[in-house]
Write a structure and sequence with these properties.
By secondary structure, the chain is an all-alpha fold. It is 96% helix and 0% strand. It is rod-shaped.
């Protein structure tokens, strides 16, 4: 059987083991708490990024629409200028032809 000396030794070893287990659980709890905080911070950062992306997408869509409107307007002006240049080219050709016949 177990005598009193061995019983005290077993109690001492069990108390040290209990202390070590509690200490290790404390360390594990500390790291889990730290991990949860970092995960929460990352979740907040991702939420902020999603808001920023949505805001930027609205701005990009607005700029895209503005550019499309501007391109349509500029295309219309270029068409008008192209017609004017064609008319002026025809007038110049007629003037050259008239001058050519008059000089002969």
């Amino acid at each position: 059987m177990i005598d009193a000396g061995q019983l005290h030794l077993i109690e001492f070893l069990l108390s040290i083991a209990g202390f070590l287990i509690l200490f290790l659980l404390g360390i594990i709890g500390f790291w889990i708490q730290k991990w949860i905080r970092s995960t929460d911070a990352l979740t907040d950062a991702i939420s902020d990024l999603r808001v920023e992306i949505a805001t930027n997408q609205v701005n990009v869509d607005s700029l895209k629409q503005h550019c499309a409107t501007r391109c349509t307007m500029i295309d219309g002006q270029l068409t008008i200028y192209s017609k004017s240049i064609q008319e002026n080219s025809l007038d110049i050709a007629l003037i050259k032809q008239t001058l050519h016949y008059e000089t002969e």
